[in-house]
Specification:
The complex is a heterodimer of chains A (about 55) and B (about 400). Chain A is an alpha+beta fold and about 55 residues long. Chain A has one domain (about 1-55): Alpha-Beta Plaits, CATH 3.30.70. Helix content of chain A is about 20%, strand content about 25%. Chain A contains 2 helices and 4 strands. Chain A has helices at about 15-20, 45; strands at about 1-5, 25, 30-35, 55. The longest helix of chain A is centred in the N-terminal third of the chain and has 5 residues, at about 15-20. Chain A is globular. Chain B is globular and about 60 Å long. In chain B, strands 1, 2, 8, 9, 10, 11, 17 and 18 form an 8-stranded mixed beta sheet that branches. A 7-stranded mixed beta sheet of chain B has the order 6-5-13-14-15-12-16, sandwiched between helices. Helix content of chain B is about 35%, strand content about 30%. Chain B has about 400 residues and is of the alpha/beta class. Chain B has 3 domains: about 5-45 and about 100-170 and about 265-330, 3-Layer(bba) Sandwich (FAD/NAD(P)-binding domain), CATH 3.50.50; about 65-95 and about 175-260, 2-Layer Sandwich (D-Amino Acid Oxidase, Chain A, domain 2); about 340-400, no CATH class. Chain B has helices spanning about 15-25, 50-55, 100-110, 160-165, 235-245, 295-315, 320-330, 330-345, 350-365, 370-380, 385-390, 395-400, and strands spanning about 5-10, 30-35, 50, 65-70, 70-75, 80-85, 95, 115-120, 120-130, 130-140, 145-155, 175-185, 195-200, 210-215, 220-225, 250-260, 270, 275. Classes of the chains: A alpha+beta (about 55), B alpha/beta (about 400). The interface of A and B includes residues 15, 18, 47 and 51 of A. Chain A: One of its GO terms (molecular function) is oxidoreductase activity. Chain A: This is 4Fe-4S binding protein. Chain A: It comes from Methanospirillum purgamenti. Chain A: Pfam families: Fer4. Chain A: InterPro entries: 4Fe4S_Fe-S-bd (IPR017896), 4Fe4S_Fe_S_CS (IPR017900).
Chain lengths: ~55, ~400
């Protein structure tokens, strides 16, 4: 699953746009991940400008 | 907030605000929703816009303008600086805006024209009936409100979730998402009227570093990196921190901005039944420069114009809304997006030797007759070896696009 490091995330939404499953949603000042939809592909982890996302097994 | 409107606008950036203003001025009932508690904040933008483009819509208020730009400098990987003089810099001669003020004023205008505004109110689900959008469920303060509308404008920016929920695939390929970080810096020694662009694979792979002045000793210093080039330890923030340490060791960052800009082609179709998609949500940001303010204003206003006619005729089907899609594609904007996409596809494949050669050769050219096609022809004439490489990189499609 994808973990959001909230101390790093600047809630910019960059990751939301590349998610092939549409599993990410930027709700104002926090990122919401639909764990039922997320396939743990890690594209969001790669694109984050700040390194706020981490894929955990 | 009423239960029913002629038009629902999802997103309170420049595209949404301009659409809402346009519909309201024509007498339609409009609700604009913004999920954030404040319009224009947090900023996700380098804030530059071409003067001539901005003047298509208005003469900017003084309070919107942080700096007026008179020239642009491009710095090659080897440090060589090329100056583009005003009359040669084309649309890059422009304004650096205060987006927090600008965006809020645009929503203010929409409100003044009669639109209802709801902030900290997020569209969470479209209302879909018979394959058409009939409004949305809005979450405000944890309470779901059903708001029905004859026409909905998806202006929800780079995330572009609303159109996606309506069945339009808005996903941006990783390699075509420019991932960005920026500091608003003060106490830095810069030319207050020149934008600077640093290119190079060690500086900003698949992108560039920008310095956009915002007044005396103050500027947006930012970077965009191709999504596929972003790696742990080499993310935009890492490149930016290294650039700042090298170039502005005594500068002070008074704001951190993160964001993404799509550098893909626009959506194949920007309308659906009772739905129009504008601005970044439609993927109409410039693939080469990353600029999106003009595109959002243009498509937002056009959606208002075409959408109003469609409502008047009582038909807001995808087919009836198609003139919106066709008009922007045939416009200056559509042509610029197509051309700059092709240039971007070549640009991201250049190594530092290529970039050095291009910047050096351009600086020697007589640019009195400056246009992109002339520029490319001159670059090829000056760099025969580069021409072969550019050919392999898809130059033919580039030249064919003119």
């Amino acid at each position: 699953m994808i973990e959001v490091h909230r101390e790093i995330c600047a809630y910019c939404g960059c990751c939301v746009s590349v998610c092939p499953e549409g599993a990410l949603e930027l709700v104002d000042a926090y990122l919401d991940i639909d764990t039922n939809t997320c396939k743990n592909c890690g594209i969001c982890v790669r694109v984050c400008p700040l390194g706020a996302l981490e894929a955990k097994k | 907030m009423k239960r029913e409107y002629d038009v629902l606008v999802v997103g309170g950036g420049p595209g949404g605000a301009f659409a809402a203003k346009t519909f309201a001025e024509k007498g339609y009932s409009v609700l604009l929703t913004e999920k954030r508690p404040a319009i224009g904040a947090p900023v996700r933008c380098a804030e530059g816009v071409g003067k001539a483009l901005m003047h298509e819509f208005f003469k900017p208020e003084d309070r919107w303008v942080a700096a007026e730009i008179e020239k642009a400098n491009i710095i090659a990987p080897d440090g060589f600086k090329m100056e583009l003089e005003p009359e040669k810099a084309g649309a890059e001669v422009g304004y650096v805006l205060h987006r927090k003020v600008f965006d809020r004023d645009l929503v203010w205008m929409a409100a003044g024209a009669g639109a209802d505004i709801q902030v900290k109110t997020r569209a969470v689900t479209p209302i879909m009936e018979d394959g058409a959008v009939k409004g949305a469920i809005l979450n405000q303060g944890g309470i779901a409100h059903e708001v029905r509308a004859g026409l909905t404008i998806a202006a929800d920016g780079v995330e572009s979730k609303f159109a996606r929920w309506c069945g339009v695939d808005t996903t941006v390929p990783l390699r075509e998402m420019e991932t960005c970080a920026q500091y608003l810096m003060t106490g830095i020694d810069i030319d207050a009227h020149a934008t600077e662009f640093y290119v190079g694979n060690n500086i900003a792979p698949g992108g560039y570093v920008w310095i956009f002045p915002k007044g005396d000793k103050t500027a947006n210093v930012g970077i965009g990196v191709g999504g596929d080039r972003c790696k742990p330890g080499n993310r935009p923030i890492d490149y930016l921190n290294r650039f700042v340490a090298r170039n502005f060791p005594n500068g002070k960052a008074i704001e951190l901005i993160a964001g993404g800009v799509s550098i893909c082609q626009p959506l194949p179709c920007t309308v659906a039944n009772n739905l129009m998609i504008v601005g970044d949500a439609a993927r109409v940001s410039d693939p080469l420069t990353g600029g999106g303010i003009y595109a959002a204003l243009y498509t937002g206003k056009l959606a208002g114009d075409v959408g109003s006619m469609a409502i008047e005729k009582g038909d807001t089907s995808a087919q009836a809304l198609m003139p919106y899609d066709e008009t922007w594609r045939a416009s200056y904007l559509g042509k610029a997006l197509e051309r700059n996409y092709q240039i971007k596809e070549v640009f991201v494949k250049l190594n530092d030797d290529d970039l050095n050669a291009i910047v050096h050769s351009v600086s020697k050219m007589n640019l009195s007759d400056f246009n992109t096609l002339n520029l490319i022809k001159n670059i090829i004439a000056a760099n025969p070896k580069l021409a072969i490489k550019l050919g392999k990189a898809g130059l033919k499609s580039l030249l064919d696009s003119f």
